[in-house]
Structures are given as structure tokens and as C-alpha cells.
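Dear U.,

Please find below the material for section 3 of the report. The protein was modelled together with fe (ii) ion; I have listed the sequence and SMILES used, followed by the predicted complex structure.
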Amino acid sequence: MVKDDNMTAANLRSAFGGESQAYMRYSYWGKVAEKDGFKNVGNLFEAVAYAEKVHAQNHFKVHENIHGDQLVPSMAGFGVGSTSENLEAAREGELFEVDQMYASYIAVAELQEEKDAKRTFHWAREVEKVHAELFEAAKKDVDSGKDYTPSSVYVCEVCGHTHPNDAPDKCPVCGAPKQKYTEFAS
Amino acid sequence: MVKDDNMTAANLRSAFGGESQAYMRYSYWGKVAEKDGFKNVGNLFEAVAYAEKVHAQNHFKVHENIHGDQLVPSMAGFGVGSTSENLEAAREGELFEVDQMYASYIAVAELQEEKDAKRTFHWAREVEKVHAELFEAAKKDVDSGKDYTPSSVYVCEVCGHTHPNDAPDKCPVCGAPKQKYTEFAS
Ligand SMILES: [Fe+2]
Ligand SMILES: [Fe+2]
Ligand SMILES: [Fe+2]
Ligand SMILES: [Fe+2]
Ligand SMILES: [Fe+2]
Ligand SMILES: [Fe+2]
């Protein structure tokens, strides 16, 4: 939990808003990909959407002691294009989170000695690096006229770590065992 | 779709942000309710979360021709309390949407002659009225020491209309037939 309604709490809200919108956007783009015949890209979007849900709810939990309605400013990507364009927009959003948003939020959490917030931001940032790579790989496949190659994607329910084809024995981000991974198969 | 990036487009983004966060909050509060032994309240939260997902994605679709990253300011409720407290916070959020948010957004959409946006705001507002009533009923049950009475809740996948126990022959909000309802059972 956070100490009080400080800058870190505002950052948790903003990250919650951004992750909630990312969940919603990826669910939608996933349906577009499936409709356009890219089943495995649809499955990837669905798996990553679930990972963003894990991030959003982890942030919400750390913020649980602060009650009430708040105006939440958060960044979000918009627009519906071709699946190649949607994958590129998704990758750019992930890189913004890695380079700007979570990098800044982690620095503030450190300054304010907010350990729980620092951990949930750190886990999310490490996972977003993977998401950017997965979307890049999927875009390469789509741009060469194919579907995304892996038909199965695993997501760690503790931190959202996302891994194509199989689950690692131990989550490289949060240390959870293999059994904590959920499979998404197209 | 919207004509251009006008005030209605900004309102669609804000409503998308608010609905996305409502989805996430209700999913979380639903898990809390189940953990506390209120299975049917957990099921109600899950069904209403799905309805908010329908609202968010309907707004996203109307906004689909505007591309790029945007700072989205949206209202959201925070905090995790007892299930009775969570139901009350949920009801207050629904009433804010009915009385303030969607009432205002509909007026602006009318002024700007944005038909698609007006429809998605109107459908959501009608459904939020129902949500406020359902949360009030559930809170009454919980406050008298029982679980929420209905163990089954139906949601219209077109507009999010939410109905306990059974699906109406025709959705009273969007006119969709009975087959468009998804059942949530605890
Ligand atoms: Fe995330
Ligand atoms: Fe991500
Ligand atoms: Fe993990
Ligand atoms: Fe809604
Ligand atoms: Fe609602
Ligand atoms: Fe409906």
C-alpha cells in the first residue's frame, strides 16, 4: 500500500488508467486481427491484454487504502487500422511505457520510499519490454504475408510476463513457478 | 465515426477511459466479493464489468478514425473496502455517469451533430441507470447478511444492458433479440 495520497499514488492511478485502456484496446485490436484472418495475432493480442489486466489490478491493489473518486490523466493510443498498423501502434505504446512512463514512476517511487509501488511499476516495465518485442515479431510476420508464427502464448498471472510457445520453469520477472502461467491458444 | 477531433471526440476518449477503469475495478471488487463468500455479488460484478467492456469498445469504435496517442482525463473510483462499501462506491460511480458525465456528453454530441457518438453515450447512460439499481439491491442483500439473491445475470453484447434472472425477449435499450444476451452464472 502507499503511505498517503502522494505523487506515487497519483502515478499508480495514472498507470492504472493507462493499463486499463491498453487492456481494452488490445482486446479490440485482437478481434480485428481475427476478423482479418490473423488468428495467432488475435491470440497474441488477447494474451497481452490479459497481462495488462494483471498490471492494472496490481497497481489498484497497491493503491487500495486511498478511497474516493479521482480525475485520472493517463496516456492511451487510439485508432483502428490494419493489423500491421495496430501492431505498430501497440509497440510504440509499450516503448513509451518502458522509456518514459514507468521509468519516471519508478524514480518517484524510489524518492518517496514507496516499496510496493516501486515493485508493481518495475514488474510492469520489465514485461512491457517483452511486449514491444512480441509485437515487433508479429508485425514482421504480418508484413511478410503470414500470420504470427506461435499459436500459443503463456502469461504469468502474478506479473503478466508473456512468453510464446511455452512457459519458463521460473518467471524471469517475478520468480513465480511454471504453474502460475496461463496458456492462450488460438 | 466522429467528424474530426472535436469536443465529442475528447468526450469519447474520456468515456473510454472511465469505462475501461470501471471494467477493471469491478473485476477486482468481484474477486474480493467471492473471497468474502458473496458468490452472487461476485457474479454480478463480473457481469457488469462485461457490460462496461461493451461500453468502452462501443466508444472506441466510434472514435476509430482518429489515430495517435492522447492524454486522457477520466473520472474513476478507487479504494478496496468491504463488499458492502464496494457496492456503494460502484452505485455512486454509476449515478455520476448518469447525472453528470453521460448527460453532458450527450448534450455536446447533439450540439455537434455527432449521431454515432450520441447513440453510444445514450445506450451507456440507459444501462448505467440499471447498474445503479442492481448495485443498490445487492447492497441491501449484503447488509442484511445474505448474498445477492439472483445467481444468474444476463448482459446484452450490443449495448451492455444487464438483467438479473433472465433475458428479455428484446433488449429495452438497443432492441437486440434475446440471443444477443450472454449469461453470467455463479
Ligand atoms: Fe502493462
Ligand atoms: Fe504491455
Ligand atoms: Fe511473473
Ligand atoms: Fe458503462
Ligand atoms: Fe455501469
Ligand atoms: Fe442491448
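For the text of the report, you could mention the following: The radius of gyration of chain B is 16 Å.

Regards,
Y.
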